[in-house]
Design goal:
The protein contains 17 helices and 24 strands. With 625 residues, it is α/β, with parallel strands linked by helices. The strands form six sheets. The protein has a five-stranded parallel beta sheet, with helices on both faces. Strands 7-6-10-9-8 form a five-stranded antiparallel beta sheet, with helices on both faces. It has a five-stranded mixed beta sheet with strand order 12-14-15-17-16. Helix 4 (97-106) links the parallel strand 4 and strand 5. Helix 10 (321-344) packs antiparallel against helix 12 (382-401), helix 11 (352-360) runs parallel beside helix 12 (382-401) and helix 12 packs antiparallel against helix 13. It is elongated.
Length: 625
Amino acid sequence: MNAAVPDKERVNVLLVDDQPGKLLSYEVMLAELDENLVAVSSAKEALAYLLKSDVAVILVDVCMPELDGFELAKMIREHPRFQKTAIIFISAIHMSESDYLRGYEAGAVDYVSVPVVPELLRAKVRVFAELFRKTRDLQQLNDELERRVAERTEALALSAHRLQQSEQGRGLALVAGNMGSWDFDLKSGAWFWDEGQSRIFGVDHATFVPSLERVRQALHTEDIEGIRQAFAALHPGQESCKIEFRIVRPTGEVRWCAAAAFASFDASGALARLSGVITDITDKKEAADHQALLAREVDHRAKNALAVVQAIVRMAKRDNIDDYAKAVEGRIGALAQTHELLSQSKWEGADILRLILDEMAPYRTDGHQRLSIIGPSLVLAPEQAQMVAMAIHELATNAAKYGSLSVETGRVDISWSTFEGALSLVWDESGGPKTVPPTKEGFGTKIISSLGRSHGGRAEFNWRPTGLKFTLELQYQRGSAISDRAVTPANTGGGANSRLLLVEDEMVVGMFMQELLETIGYRPTDPVGRLSEAMEMATKERFDGAILDMNLNGEIVYPLADLLTQQCVPFVFVTGYAPRSVDPRFTDVPILQKPVLQEDLAEMLQNILGFAPNQPSARPMAAAK
Protein backbone atom coordinates (compact mmCIF):
# COMPACT_ATOMS: atom_id res chain seq x y z
CA MET A 1 0.00 0.00 0.00
CA ASN A 2 1.19 3.44 -0.87
CA ALA A 3 2.22 5.74 1.93
CA ALA A 4 -0.49 8.06 3.07
CA VAL A 5 -0.45 11.52 1.56
CA PRO A 6 -0.23 14.31 4.13
CA ASP A 7 -3.50 16.14 4.82
CA LYS A 8 -2.17 19.40 3.44
CA GLU A 9 -1.62 17.69 0.06
CA ARG A 10 -5.00 15.91 -0.18
CA VAL A 11 -7.24 16.77 -3.11
CA ASN A 12 -11.04 16.81 -3.30
CA VAL A 13 -12.83 14.00 -5.14
CA LEU A 14 -16.51 14.80 -5.77
CA LEU A 15 -18.94 11.82 -5.93
CA VAL A 16 -22.30 12.61 -7.57
CA ASP A 17 -25.16 10.00 -7.54
CA ASP A 18 -28.81 10.11 -6.56
CA GLN A 19 -28.57 6.71 -4.82
CA PRO A 20 -26.99 6.78 -1.32
CA GLY A 21 -25.95 3.14 -1.54
CA LYS A 22 -23.82 3.74 -4.59
CA LEU A 23 -22.22 6.78 -2.96
CA LEU A 24 -21.34 4.63 0.06
CA SER A 25 -19.83 1.93 -2.11
CA TYR A 26 -17.73 4.49 -3.99
CA GLU A 27 -16.45 5.88 -0.71
CA VAL A 28 -15.43 2.41 0.44
CA MET A 29 -13.65 1.66 -2.81
CA LEU A 30 -11.71 4.96 -2.78
CA ALA A 31 -11.02 5.21 0.94
CA GLU A 32 -7.50 3.81 0.68
CA LEU A 33 -6.50 6.70 -1.63
CA ASP A 34 -6.68 8.93 1.45
CA GLU A 35 -8.17 11.83 -0.50
CA ASN A 36 -11.01 14.14 0.52
CA LEU A 37 -14.09 12.28 -0.71
CA VAL A 38 -17.14 14.52 -1.01
CA ALA A 39 -20.48 12.77 -1.70
CA VAL A 40 -23.53 14.69 -3.04
CA SER A 41 -26.87 13.27 -4.24
CA SER A 42 -27.87 15.76 -6.92
CA ALA A 43 -26.49 17.94 -9.68
CA LYS A 44 -27.61 21.05 -7.76
CA GLU A 45 -25.54 20.08 -4.71
CA ALA A 46 -22.57 19.27 -6.95
CA LEU A 47 -22.69 22.71 -8.60
CA ALA A 48 -23.00 24.42 -5.22
CA TYR A 49 -19.92 22.60 -3.90
CA LEU A 50 -17.91 23.33 -7.03
CA LEU A 51 -18.52 27.05 -6.67
CA LYS A 52 -16.92 26.97 -3.22
CA SER A 53 -14.08 24.45 -3.65
CA ASP A 54 -11.50 23.16 -6.08
CA VAL A 55 -12.00 19.55 -7.13
CA ALA A 56 -9.49 17.15 -8.66
CA VAL A 57 -11.84 14.44 -9.94
CA ILE A 58 -15.63 14.25 -10.36
CA LEU A 59 -17.40 10.87 -10.48
CA VAL A 60 -20.86 11.38 -12.02
CA ASP A 61 -23.71 8.91 -12.50
CA VAL A 62 -24.98 9.21 -16.07
CA CYS A 63 -28.64 8.59 -15.14
CA MET A 64 -30.04 10.99 -12.53
CA PRO A 65 -33.67 12.15 -12.24
CA GLU A 66 -33.44 15.96 -12.34
CA LEU A 67 -30.30 16.55 -14.42
CA ASP A 68 -28.45 13.68 -16.06
CA GLY A 69 -24.66 13.35 -16.06
CA PHE A 70 -24.24 14.70 -19.61
CA GLU A 71 -26.02 17.96 -18.83
CA LEU A 72 -24.17 18.35 -15.51
CA ALA A 73 -20.81 17.81 -17.22
CA LYS A 74 -21.67 20.39 -19.85
CA MET A 75 -22.59 22.94 -17.20
CA ILE A 76 -19.38 22.26 -15.30
CA ARG A 77 -17.26 22.70 -18.43
CA GLU A 78 -18.83 26.08 -19.12
CA HIS A 79 -17.28 27.49 -15.94
CA PRO A 80 -13.67 28.76 -16.54
CA ARG A 81 -12.39 27.20 -13.31
CA PHE A 82 -13.44 23.66 -14.27
CA GLN A 83 -12.66 23.51 -17.96
CA LYS A 84 -9.83 21.04 -17.28
CA THR A 85 -11.29 19.18 -14.26
CA ALA A 86 -11.32 15.39 -14.74
CA ILE A 87 -14.93 14.03 -15.07
CA ILE A 88 -15.49 10.24 -14.99
CA PHE A 89 -18.90 8.89 -15.95
CA ILE A 90 -20.32 5.78 -14.19
CA SER A 91 -23.03 4.05 -16.15
CA ALA A 92 -25.22 1.03 -15.25
CA ILE A 93 -26.78 0.79 -18.71
CA HIS A 94 -25.36 -0.32 -22.00
CA MET A 95 -23.98 2.62 -23.92
CA SER A 96 -23.51 2.86 -27.65
CA GLU A 97 -20.63 4.53 -29.40
CA SER A 98 -22.80 7.61 -29.94
CA ASP A 99 -23.42 7.74 -26.16
CA TYR A 100 -19.67 7.62 -25.56
CA LEU A 101 -19.12 10.36 -28.10
CA ARG A 102 -21.82 12.47 -26.48
CA GLY A 103 -20.14 12.02 -23.09
CA TYR A 104 -16.74 13.07 -24.38
CA GLU A 105 -18.26 16.08 -26.09
CA ALA A 106 -19.90 17.02 -22.78
CA GLY A 107 -16.50 16.97 -21.09
CA ALA A 108 -15.95 13.44 -19.79
CA VAL A 109 -12.41 12.10 -19.70
CA ASP A 110 -13.25 8.46 -18.96
CA TYR A 111 -16.02 5.90 -18.39
CA VAL A 112 -16.53 3.21 -15.74
CA SER A 113 -19.18 0.55 -16.27
CA VAL A 114 -21.25 -1.19 -13.62
CA PRO A 115 -20.43 -3.49 -11.92
CA VAL A 116 -17.50 -1.27 -10.90
CA VAL A 117 -14.17 -2.95 -10.42
CA PRO A 118 -12.67 -1.29 -7.28
CA GLU A 119 -9.07 -1.60 -8.43
CA LEU A 120 -9.85 -0.10 -11.80
CA LEU A 121 -11.78 2.81 -10.26
CA ARG A 122 -9.03 3.52 -7.76
CA ALA A 123 -6.41 3.43 -10.50
CA LYS A 124 -8.26 5.90 -12.64
CA VAL A 125 -9.04 8.27 -9.76
CA ARG A 126 -5.46 8.00 -8.50
CA VAL A 127 -4.06 8.97 -11.92
CA PHE A 128 -6.28 12.02 -12.26
CA ALA A 129 -5.73 13.02 -8.60
CA GLU A 130 -1.95 12.87 -9.07
CA LEU A 131 -2.26 14.77 -12.33
CA PHE A 132 -4.32 17.46 -10.56
CA ARG A 133 -1.83 17.60 -7.69
CA LYS A 134 1.15 17.96 -10.05
CA THR A 135 -0.70 20.52 -12.13
CA ARG A 136 -1.51 22.45 -8.98
CA ASP A 137 2.10 22.23 -7.81
CA LEU A 138 3.31 23.36 -11.21
CA GLN A 139 0.85 26.24 -11.13
CA GLN A 140 2.08 27.23 -7.69
CA LEU A 141 5.66 27.04 -8.91
CA ASN A 142 4.68 29.03 -11.97
CA ASP A 143 2.95 31.63 -9.81
CA GLU A 144 6.01 31.81 -7.55
CA LEU A 145 8.25 32.12 -10.59
CA GLU A 146 6.08 34.85 -12.05
CA ARG A 147 6.10 36.62 -8.69
CA ARG A 148 9.85 36.41 -8.52
CA VAL A 149 10.18 37.51 -12.13
CA ALA A 150 7.88 40.43 -11.40
CA GLU A 151 9.90 41.36 -8.32
CA ARG A 152 13.15 40.98 -10.25
CA THR A 153 11.76 42.99 -13.15
CA GLU A 154 10.66 45.69 -10.75
CA ALA A 155 14.07 45.62 -9.06
CA LEU A 156 15.81 45.79 -12.44
CA ALA A 157 13.57 48.66 -13.50
CA LEU A 158 14.31 50.46 -10.24
CA SER A 159 18.01 49.72 -10.65
CA ALA A 160 17.90 50.93 -14.25
CA HIS A 161 16.11 54.09 -13.14
CA ARG A 162 18.69 54.69 -10.44
CA LEU A 163 21.47 53.96 -12.92
CA GLN A 164 19.91 56.42 -15.34
CA GLN A 165 19.66 59.01 -12.59
CA SER A 166 23.26 58.28 -11.61
CA GLU A 167 24.36 58.57 -15.22
CA GLN A 168 22.47 61.84 -15.56
CA GLY A 169 24.09 63.04 -12.35
CA ARG A 170 27.48 61.93 -13.61
CA GLY A 171 26.83 63.70 -16.89
CA LEU A 172 25.83 66.88 -15.09
CA ALA A 173 28.90 66.60 -12.87
CA LEU A 174 31.11 66.11 -15.92
CA VAL A 175 29.51 69.11 -17.62
CA ALA A 176 29.80 71.26 -14.50
CA GLY A 177 33.39 70.22 -13.99
CA ASN A 178 34.37 70.49 -17.68
CA MET A 179 35.11 66.78 -17.62
CA GLY A 180 34.85 63.88 -20.04
CA SER A 181 35.42 60.13 -19.80
CA TRP A 182 36.92 57.68 -22.29
CA ASP A 183 37.88 54.02 -22.65
CA PHE A 184 40.06 52.26 -25.20
CA ASP A 185 40.34 48.48 -25.69
CA LEU A 186 43.79 47.84 -27.15
CA LYS A 187 42.92 44.35 -28.38
CA SER A 188 39.67 45.14 -30.21
CA GLY A 189 40.40 48.79 -30.95
CA ALA A 190 36.96 49.75 -29.55
CA TRP A 191 36.50 53.21 -28.04
CA PHE A 192 34.08 54.69 -25.56
CA TRP A 193 33.99 58.48 -25.92
CA ASP A 194 31.33 60.49 -24.09
CA GLU A 195 29.88 63.91 -24.88
CA GLY A 196 32.16 65.56 -22.33
CA GLN A 197 35.18 64.38 -24.32
CA SER A 198 33.74 65.81 -27.52
CA ARG A 199 32.95 69.08 -25.77
CA ILE A 200 36.51 69.40 -24.46
CA PHE A 201 38.08 68.50 -27.82
CA GLY A 202 35.68 70.83 -29.67
CA VAL A 203 34.29 68.16 -32.01
CA ASP A 204 30.75 67.18 -33.02
CA HIS A 205 29.82 64.23 -30.82
CA ALA A 206 27.30 62.91 -33.34
CA THR A 207 29.85 62.59 -36.16
CA PHE A 208 33.23 62.25 -34.45
CA VAL A 209 34.59 58.69 -34.48
CA PRO A 210 37.57 58.42 -32.08
CA SER A 211 40.73 56.64 -33.14
CA LEU A 212 44.35 56.71 -32.04
CA GLU A 213 45.32 58.81 -35.04
CA ARG A 214 42.51 61.35 -34.59
CA VAL A 215 43.27 61.72 -30.89
CA ARG A 216 46.99 62.08 -31.60
CA GLN A 217 46.25 64.82 -34.15
CA ALA A 218 44.34 66.75 -31.47
CA LEU A 219 47.26 66.68 -29.01
CA HIS A 220 49.73 69.55 -28.87
CA THR A 221 52.89 68.41 -30.63
CA GLU A 222 55.08 69.48 -27.70
CA ASP A 223 53.12 67.27 -25.26
CA ILE A 224 52.84 64.02 -27.26
CA GLU A 225 56.14 62.59 -26.03
CA GLY A 226 55.28 63.28 -22.38
CA ILE A 227 51.96 61.47 -22.76
CA ARG A 228 53.65 58.53 -24.46
CA GLN A 229 56.19 58.23 -21.63
CA ALA A 230 53.46 58.39 -18.99
CA PHE A 231 51.55 55.51 -20.60
CA ALA A 232 54.74 53.52 -21.25
CA ALA A 233 55.54 53.66 -17.53
CA LEU A 234 52.31 51.83 -16.60
CA HIS A 235 52.65 48.20 -15.46
CA PRO A 236 50.72 45.77 -13.22
CA GLY A 237 52.30 47.33 -10.13
CA GLN A 238 51.58 50.89 -11.33
CA GLU A 239 48.17 50.94 -12.95
CA SER A 240 47.36 54.66 -12.94
CA CYS A 241 48.93 57.98 -13.85
CA LYS A 242 48.06 61.67 -13.87
CA ILE A 243 49.28 64.02 -16.57
CA GLU A 244 48.68 67.55 -17.81
CA PHE A 245 48.83 68.38 -21.49
CA ARG A 246 47.46 70.65 -24.17
CA ILE A 247 45.07 69.93 -27.01
CA VAL A 248 44.42 71.94 -30.16
CA ARG A 249 40.80 72.18 -31.22
CA PRO A 250 39.81 72.17 -34.92
CA THR A 251 39.41 75.96 -34.63
CA GLY A 252 43.06 76.28 -33.55
CA GLU A 253 42.16 77.11 -29.94
CA VAL A 254 44.59 75.61 -27.41
CA ARG A 255 43.14 74.14 -24.22
CA TRP A 256 44.89 72.76 -21.13
CA CYS A 257 43.72 69.37 -19.84
CA ALA A 258 44.41 67.19 -16.81
CA ALA A 259 43.95 63.44 -17.25
CA ALA A 260 43.71 60.58 -14.79
CA ALA A 261 44.29 57.32 -16.67
CA PHE A 262 43.83 53.74 -15.46
CA ALA A 263 45.28 50.63 -17.10
CA SER A 264 44.09 47.00 -17.19
CA PHE A 265 46.45 44.13 -17.97
CA ASP A 266 45.81 40.60 -19.24
CA ALA A 267 47.09 37.39 -17.65
CA SER A 268 50.47 37.74 -19.37
CA GLY A 269 50.93 41.26 -18.00
CA ALA A 270 50.36 42.98 -21.36
CA LEU A 271 48.39 46.21 -21.44
CA ALA A 272 44.83 45.39 -22.48
CA ARG A 273 42.70 48.45 -21.77
CA LEU A 274 43.09 52.14 -20.96
CA SER A 275 40.36 54.28 -19.47
CA GLY A 276 40.24 57.60 -17.75
CA VAL A 277 38.77 61.00 -17.10
CA ILE A 278 39.90 64.29 -18.66
CA THR A 279 39.27 67.71 -17.12
CA ASP A 280 39.52 70.99 -18.98
CA ILE A 281 41.74 73.09 -16.69
CA THR A 282 42.28 76.01 -19.08
CA ASP A 283 40.40 78.45 -16.86
CA LYS A 284 42.32 77.20 -13.83
CA LYS A 285 45.63 77.59 -15.67
CA GLU A 286 44.73 81.07 -16.85
CA ALA A 287 43.62 82.02 -13.34
CA ALA A 288 46.92 80.74 -11.91
CA ASP A 289 48.88 82.61 -14.58
CA HIS A 290 46.82 85.72 -13.92
CA GLN A 291 47.41 85.38 -10.19
CA ALA A 292 51.14 84.99 -10.74
CA LEU A 293 51.10 87.98 -13.07
CA LEU A 294 49.11 89.96 -10.52
CA ALA A 295 51.59 89.05 -7.79
CA ARG A 296 54.50 90.15 -9.99
CA GLU A 297 52.67 93.35 -10.89
CA VAL A 298 51.91 94.12 -7.24
CA ASP A 299 55.57 93.51 -6.42
CA HIS A 300 56.60 95.73 -9.33
CA ARG A 301 54.26 98.56 -8.35
CA ALA A 302 55.30 98.35 -4.70
CA LYS A 303 58.97 98.59 -5.61
CA ASN A 304 58.26 101.43 -8.02
CA ALA A 305 56.36 103.24 -5.28
CA LEU A 306 59.31 102.74 -2.92
CA ALA A 307 61.62 104.05 -5.61
CA VAL A 308 59.44 107.18 -6.01
CA VAL A 309 59.42 107.71 -2.23
CA GLN A 310 63.19 107.20 -2.19
CA ALA A 311 63.57 109.87 -4.88
CA ILE A 312 61.29 112.26 -3.04
CA VAL A 313 63.20 111.81 0.23
CA ARG A 314 66.58 112.10 -1.48
CA MET A 315 65.76 115.15 -3.62
CA ALA A 316 63.66 117.14 -1.14
CA LYS A 317 66.34 119.62 0.02
CA ARG A 318 65.35 122.12 2.76
CA ASP A 319 67.17 124.44 5.14
CA ASN A 320 65.68 122.89 8.29
CA ILE A 321 64.21 119.58 9.38
CA ASP A 322 60.63 120.89 9.78
CA ASP A 323 60.45 122.20 6.23
CA TYR A 324 62.02 118.97 5.00
CA ALA A 325 59.44 116.83 6.83
CA LYS A 326 56.52 118.93 5.53
CA ALA A 327 57.82 118.77 1.96
CA VAL A 328 58.26 115.02 2.07
CA GLU A 329 54.89 114.42 3.73
CA GLY A 330 53.11 116.66 1.24
CA ARG A 331 54.65 114.99 -1.81
CA ILE A 332 54.04 111.48 -0.48
CA GLY A 333 50.47 112.49 0.38
CA ALA A 334 49.93 113.71 -3.18
CA LEU A 335 51.33 110.43 -4.48
CA ALA A 336 49.07 108.45 -2.14
CA GLN A 337 45.95 110.33 -3.30
CA THR A 338 46.76 109.55 -6.91
CA HIS A 339 47.37 105.89 -6.08
CA GLU A 340 43.93 105.76 -4.46
CA LEU A 341 42.30 107.11 -7.62
CA LEU A 342 44.23 104.65 -9.77
CA SER A 343 43.32 101.74 -7.49
CA GLN A 344 39.63 102.59 -7.86
CA SER A 345 40.00 102.34 -11.64
CA LYS A 346 42.13 99.17 -11.39
CA TRP A 347 45.12 101.19 -12.60
CA GLU A 348 43.50 101.98 -15.92
CA GLY A 349 43.78 105.73 -15.37
CA ALA A 350 42.58 108.69 -13.30
CA ASP A 351 40.17 111.50 -14.17
CA ILE A 352 42.06 114.81 -14.23
CA LEU A 353 39.15 116.74 -12.66
CA ARG A 354 38.94 114.41 -9.68
CA LEU A 355 42.71 114.44 -9.38
CA ILE A 356 42.94 118.28 -9.29
CA LEU A 357 39.97 118.59 -6.93
CA ASP A 358 41.62 116.20 -4.47
CA GLU A 359 44.95 118.03 -4.64
CA MET A 360 43.34 121.44 -4.18
CA ALA A 361 40.91 120.33 -1.43
CA PRO A 362 42.96 121.93 1.43
CA TYR A 363 42.55 125.34 -0.21
CA ARG A 364 38.78 125.13 -0.71
CA THR A 365 37.70 124.92 2.95
CA ASP A 366 37.54 128.60 3.95
CA GLY A 367 34.40 129.45 2.00
CA HIS A 368 36.06 132.07 -0.23
CA GLN A 369 35.94 131.80 -3.99
CA ARG A 370 39.71 131.57 -4.38
CA LEU A 371 39.74 128.71 -6.86
CA SER A 372 38.30 128.18 -10.32
CA ILE A 373 38.69 124.67 -11.76
CA ILE A 374 37.30 124.24 -15.28
CA GLY A 375 37.92 121.56 -17.91
CA PRO A 376 36.48 118.52 -19.68
CA SER A 377 36.47 115.01 -18.24
CA LEU A 378 39.71 113.35 -19.30
CA VAL A 379 41.30 110.12 -18.10
CA LEU A 380 45.06 110.27 -17.78
CA ALA A 381 47.31 107.23 -18.03
CA PRO A 382 48.69 106.11 -14.62
CA GLU A 383 52.20 107.52 -15.06
CA GLN A 384 50.87 110.86 -16.36
CA ALA A 385 48.29 111.04 -13.56
CA GLN A 386 51.00 110.68 -10.93
CA MET A 387 53.15 113.37 -12.50
CA VAL A 388 50.26 115.81 -13.02
CA ALA A 389 49.21 115.29 -9.40
CA MET A 390 52.71 116.03 -8.13
CA ALA A 391 52.97 119.06 -10.45
CA ILE A 392 49.66 120.46 -9.10
CA HIS A 393 50.86 119.72 -5.58
CA GLU A 394 54.14 121.60 -6.15
CA LEU A 395 52.32 124.56 -7.73
CA ALA A 396 49.76 124.67 -4.90
CA THR A 397 52.47 124.39 -2.22
CA ASN A 398 54.47 127.20 -3.83
CA ALA A 399 51.33 129.36 -4.16
CA ALA A 400 50.42 128.78 -0.52
CA LYS A 401 53.90 129.86 0.62
CA TYR A 402 54.79 132.64 -1.79
CA GLY A 403 51.99 133.15 -4.29
CA SER A 404 48.31 134.00 -4.54
CA LEU A 405 47.15 131.37 -2.01
CA SER A 406 49.30 133.00 0.68
CA VAL A 407 46.87 135.96 1.01
CA GLU A 408 43.07 136.12 1.31
CA THR A 409 42.70 138.25 -1.83
CA GLY A 410 44.61 135.83 -3.99
CA ARG A 411 43.06 133.58 -6.60
CA VAL A 412 44.07 130.60 -8.76
CA ASP A 413 42.35 129.70 -12.04
CA ILE A 414 43.04 126.15 -13.25
CA SER A 415 41.79 125.17 -16.68
CA TRP A 416 42.55 122.58 -19.30
CA SER A 417 41.43 121.66 -22.78
CA THR A 418 42.17 119.06 -25.43
CA PHE A 419 42.83 119.33 -29.14
CA GLU A 420 43.84 116.51 -31.50
CA GLY A 421 45.09 114.29 -28.68
CA ALA A 422 47.02 117.03 -26.90
CA LEU A 423 46.34 118.30 -23.39
CA SER A 424 46.86 121.94 -22.51
CA LEU A 425 46.71 122.79 -18.79
CA VAL A 426 46.97 126.38 -17.47
CA TRP A 427 47.66 127.44 -13.88
CA ASP A 428 46.99 131.18 -13.53
CA GLU A 429 47.60 133.03 -10.25
CA SER A 430 46.33 136.55 -9.50
CA GLY A 431 45.69 138.90 -6.55
CA GLY A 432 48.71 137.71 -4.61
CA PRO A 433 52.07 139.22 -3.68
CA LYS A 434 54.40 140.45 -6.39
CA THR A 435 56.03 137.50 -8.09
CA VAL A 436 59.80 137.21 -8.45
CA PRO A 437 61.39 134.47 -10.60
CA PRO A 438 63.36 131.91 -8.50
CA THR A 439 67.12 132.16 -8.53
CA LYS A 440 67.57 128.36 -8.79
CA GLU A 441 65.53 125.39 -9.99
CA GLY A 442 64.07 123.39 -7.11
CA PHE A 443 62.71 119.85 -6.95
CA GLY A 444 59.17 120.92 -7.77
CA THR A 445 60.28 122.94 -10.80
CA LYS A 446 62.34 119.96 -12.00
CA ILE A 447 59.31 117.66 -11.74
CA ILE A 448 57.10 120.04 -13.68
CA SER A 449 59.69 120.69 -16.38
CA SER A 450 60.44 116.99 -16.77
CA LEU A 451 56.74 116.22 -17.13
CA GLY A 452 56.49 118.33 -20.26
CA ARG A 453 59.68 117.00 -21.82
CA SER A 454 58.96 113.35 -21.10
CA HIS A 455 55.55 113.28 -22.77
CA GLY A 456 56.29 115.00 -26.05
CA GLY A 457 55.22 118.45 -24.87
CA ARG A 458 56.48 121.51 -23.05
CA ALA A 459 56.24 123.22 -19.67
CA GLU A 460 56.40 127.02 -19.57
CA PHE A 461 56.75 129.24 -16.45
CA ASN A 462 55.73 132.89 -16.86
CA TRP A 463 56.74 134.72 -13.70
CA ARG A 464 54.55 137.81 -14.11
CA PRO A 465 54.61 140.47 -11.36
CA THR A 466 50.86 139.89 -10.87
CA GLY A 467 51.29 136.17 -10.41
CA LEU A 468 52.68 132.98 -11.93
CA LYS A 469 51.12 131.68 -15.11
CA PHE A 470 52.15 128.13 -15.86
CA THR A 471 51.26 126.30 -19.08
CA LEU A 472 51.70 122.57 -19.58
CA GLU A 473 51.22 120.95 -22.96
CA LEU A 474 51.62 117.21 -23.45
CA GLN A 475 50.43 114.32 -25.56
CA TYR A 476 48.23 112.15 -23.39
CA GLN A 477 47.46 109.50 -26.00
CA ARG A 478 49.72 106.49 -26.49
CA GLY A 479 51.90 106.68 -29.58
CA SER A 480 52.37 110.46 -29.44
CA ALA A 481 54.99 112.24 -31.52
CA ILE A 482 58.66 111.88 -30.71
CA SER A 483 60.80 114.99 -30.51
CA ASP A 484 63.37 115.25 -33.26
CA ARG A 485 66.94 114.77 -32.14
CA ALA A 486 70.15 115.38 -34.05
CA VAL A 487 72.68 112.60 -34.45
CA THR A 488 75.42 112.91 -31.86
CA PRO A 489 78.87 111.51 -32.56
CA ALA A 490 80.02 108.59 -30.43
CA ASN A 491 82.15 109.31 -27.39
CA THR A 492 85.57 107.75 -27.38
CA GLY A 493 86.65 108.13 -23.79
CA GLY A 494 85.54 107.08 -20.33
CA GLY A 495 85.35 108.97 -17.09
CA ALA A 496 83.34 112.17 -16.94
CA ASN A 497 82.75 112.00 -20.71
CA SER A 498 80.79 108.71 -20.44
CA ARG A 499 77.39 109.30 -21.99
CA LEU A 500 74.63 107.05 -20.59
CA LEU A 501 71.14 106.47 -21.95
CA LEU A 502 68.66 106.63 -19.04
CA VAL A 503 65.31 104.90 -19.71
CA GLU A 504 62.70 105.18 -16.92
CA ASP A 505 58.95 105.83 -17.21
CA GLU A 506 58.48 106.96 -13.59
CA MET A 507 59.66 110.55 -13.92
CA VAL A 508 60.39 111.11 -10.23
CA VAL A 509 62.49 107.94 -10.19
CA GLY A 510 64.07 109.00 -13.47
CA MET A 511 65.04 112.38 -12.05
CA PHE A 512 66.48 110.66 -9.00
CA MET A 513 68.48 108.23 -11.17
CA GLN A 514 69.70 111.15 -13.26
CA GLU A 515 70.90 112.92 -10.14
CA LEU A 516 72.60 109.75 -8.87
CA LEU A 517 74.44 109.28 -12.17
CA GLU A 518 75.56 112.88 -12.20
CA THR A 519 76.70 112.56 -8.58
CA ILE A 520 78.72 109.45 -9.47
CA GLY A 521 80.32 111.32 -12.38
CA TYR A 522 78.50 110.26 -15.57
CA ARG A 523 76.61 112.28 -18.19
CA PRO A 524 73.12 110.74 -18.41
CA THR A 525 70.35 111.77 -20.76
CA ASP A 526 67.13 113.19 -19.41
CA PRO A 527 64.88 110.29 -18.36
CA VAL A 528 63.21 108.72 -21.41
CA GLY A 529 59.81 107.22 -20.60
CA ARG A 530 58.78 105.69 -23.93
CA LEU A 531 60.28 102.79 -25.82
CA SER A 532 59.88 104.36 -29.25
CA GLU A 533 61.71 107.52 -28.19
CA ALA A 534 64.51 105.51 -26.57
CA MET A 535 64.88 103.37 -29.73
CA GLU A 536 65.19 106.52 -31.85
CA MET A 537 67.78 108.02 -29.52
CA ALA A 538 69.86 104.81 -29.54
CA THR A 539 69.73 104.82 -33.33
CA LYS A 540 70.82 108.46 -33.71
CA GLU A 541 73.36 108.67 -30.89
CA ARG A 542 76.08 106.28 -29.79
CA PHE A 543 76.11 105.78 -26.00
CA ASP A 544 78.79 104.37 -23.75
CA GLY A 545 76.24 102.51 -21.65
CA ALA A 546 72.58 102.42 -20.70
CA ILE A 547 70.31 102.01 -17.68
CA LEU A 548 67.05 100.39 -18.80
CA ASP A 549 63.79 100.16 -16.85
CA MET A 550 62.39 96.82 -18.04
CA ASN A 551 58.71 97.83 -18.14
CA LEU A 552 57.84 101.16 -19.77
CA ASN A 553 54.13 101.56 -19.06
CA GLY A 554 53.40 98.03 -20.27
CA GLU A 555 56.03 97.96 -23.04
CA ILE A 556 58.92 95.57 -22.42
CA VAL A 557 62.32 97.12 -23.17
CA TYR A 558 63.72 94.02 -24.93
CA PRO A 559 63.75 95.56 -28.46
CA LEU A 560 66.00 98.34 -27.16
CA ALA A 561 68.16 95.77 -25.34
CA ASP A 562 68.55 93.84 -28.61
CA LEU A 563 69.58 97.04 -30.41
CA LEU A 564 72.14 97.97 -27.76
CA THR A 565 73.52 94.42 -27.83
CA GLN A 566 74.02 94.70 -31.61
CA GLN A 567 75.82 98.02 -31.04
CA CYS A 568 78.03 96.46 -28.32
CA VAL A 569 76.73 99.00 -25.81
CA PRO A 570 76.72 97.59 -22.25
CA PHE A 571 73.58 98.10 -20.21
CA VAL A 572 71.95 97.39 -16.86
CA PHE A 573 68.35 96.38 -16.23
CA VAL A 574 66.49 98.22 -13.47
CA THR A 575 63.20 96.61 -12.42
CA GLY A 576 60.67 96.12 -9.70
CA TYR A 577 59.99 92.57 -10.96
CA ALA A 578 61.78 89.47 -9.72
CA PRO A 579 65.02 88.65 -11.62
CA ARG A 580 63.57 85.32 -12.80
CA SER A 581 61.12 87.21 -15.02
CA VAL A 582 63.94 88.32 -17.38
CA ASP A 583 64.01 86.75 -20.85
CA PRO A 584 66.55 83.86 -20.97
CA ARG A 585 68.61 85.56 -23.69
CA PHE A 586 69.43 88.36 -21.22
CA THR A 587 70.28 86.19 -18.22
CA ASP A 588 73.87 87.53 -18.22
CA VAL A 589 72.79 91.18 -18.09
CA PRO A 590 73.18 92.73 -14.60
CA ILE A 591 69.94 93.57 -12.81
CA LEU A 592 69.33 96.26 -10.21
CA GLN A 593 66.23 95.89 -8.03
CA LYS A 594 64.24 98.99 -7.17
CA PRO A 595 64.72 101.03 -5.05
CA VAL A 596 68.30 101.60 -6.27
CA LEU A 597 71.18 102.47 -3.95
CA GLN A 598 73.95 104.75 -5.19
CA GLU A 599 76.72 102.36 -4.17
CA ASP A 600 75.15 99.44 -6.04
CA LEU A 601 74.61 101.54 -9.15
CA ALA A 602 78.20 102.83 -9.14
CA GLU A 603 79.68 99.36 -8.67
CA MET A 604 77.56 97.78 -11.39
CA LEU A 605 78.33 100.50 -13.93
CA GLN A 606 82.06 100.20 -13.19
CA ASN A 607 81.79 96.43 -13.80
CA ILE A 608 80.05 96.68 -17.17
CA LEU A 609 81.96 99.75 -18.44
CA GLY A 610 85.32 98.53 -17.25
CA PHE A 611 86.30 101.80 -15.55
CA ALA A 612 85.24 104.26 -12.87
CA PRO A 613 83.96 107.66 -14.09
CA ASN A 614 87.13 109.44 -12.94
CA GLN A 615 89.43 106.89 -14.63
CA PRO A 616 90.10 107.41 -18.37
CA SER A 617 89.92 104.26 -20.39
CA ALA A 618 89.81 102.89 -23.89
CA ARG A 619 86.53 101.90 -25.55
CA PRO A 620 83.90 100.39 -23.21
CA MET A 621 83.48 96.66 -22.99
CA ALA A 622 80.84 94.95 -25.12
CA ALA A 623 77.51 94.20 -23.53
CA ALA A 624 76.95 90.75 -22.15
CA LYS A 625 74.63 88.77 -24.32
